[in-house]
Amino acid sequence: MNSPRMAFAAKMCHRFLRRFHPLLNQCHLVRSVSSLQKLEEDVRAEVEAKNYVKIPDLLIPLESCHSSNSNPFSFFSSFSQNLQVEVIDEMLQSFIPLRPRSKPKIALSFLLTYTLQSSHPLPIALAVLQRTLRSGCVPVPQTHVLLTSAWLDRRRLSHSVANVLLEMQSIGYHPDCGTCNYLLSSLCAVDQLAEAVKVLKGMGGAGCIPDLNSYGIVIGAISRARKTAEAVDLMKQMVVKYGLTPGQGTLVKLFAALRANREIWKAVEMIELLEKEGHSVEFESYEAVIEGCLEKHEYVLAGKVAMGMTERGFIPYIKSRQKIIEGLASIGEWKIACAVRQRFASLKS
After folding, report:
1. Helix 193-202 vs helix 143-155: angle between axes, to the nearest 10 degrees?
2. CB 12 within 8 A of CB 149
3. Which residues have C-beta within 8 Å of that of residue 166, sequence separation ≥ 6?
4. CB 62: neighbour CB atoms within 10 A?
5. Which spans of this chain does UniProt mark as PPR repeats (predicted)?
């Protein structure tokens, strides 16, 4: 085991997995050491016989017990690295025809945990992750921590994002957007936001063009951290460079962050950019921007946003409408106040 990597994983596990503690204690179906040893022997026998398709059924008793201390694939550590890769590849290929697709879920889960905790986790763990996701399975929660640890350990060797991803080709696999998106969500889950941004920007070099989910994961995470400068830059890149339509959930998070940071002019400029590029902005985002304007006493700007909002069929909450009119009147902008009031009235507000 790589001690710095495992130390990092242990630290992050303590923070990230506390809320999953009850789930990780449900190991009531397999209690004795002898039964675990027997299960591992049975799995090893099927591996040596290359009867990989029988393994998922063997592991059914472990369905509610996922522990790195009782991994049925731990005997792989006695194999050479090349043999491990060969066997795991054969196993993954044998799982593809199984139906339902999720049948190898337990086997893939333990296999992913084993490879991520092995001395050479990448690129083989990425191949297991890819097969897991393509099987419609969701990795167990601690995968976020283990994957982040393995990824950062590899990146510390000065490998670029693209090069690490392209190492999958050396074992017959190709990186894809789904695998990269899970990596992004893992990095964000353990607050490795700077690395997540690097992966987002570098994954295209491995042939994985970022999609709507890629940007949504990262923009959402850095918005929650109120790193608005990076969030705005990524949103512009997403909309202008790639022509992607941002999800409304992502926009709400970005506008909430801009409001919290009192960067309301940036928020208004973002609305204008989105509309210029032909993307709709929904009610919740407009309302957040208007409330941000009012909090900063930017009444003229609030009126402008409200007018634009009504043109798209939305109308601010009554309290916001009252504050806009009163605010404009308080600074002597009677003409604008009357125009805004008439607009609200025309919509039978």
Report:
1. 70
2. yes
3. 175, 206
4. 21
5. 176-210
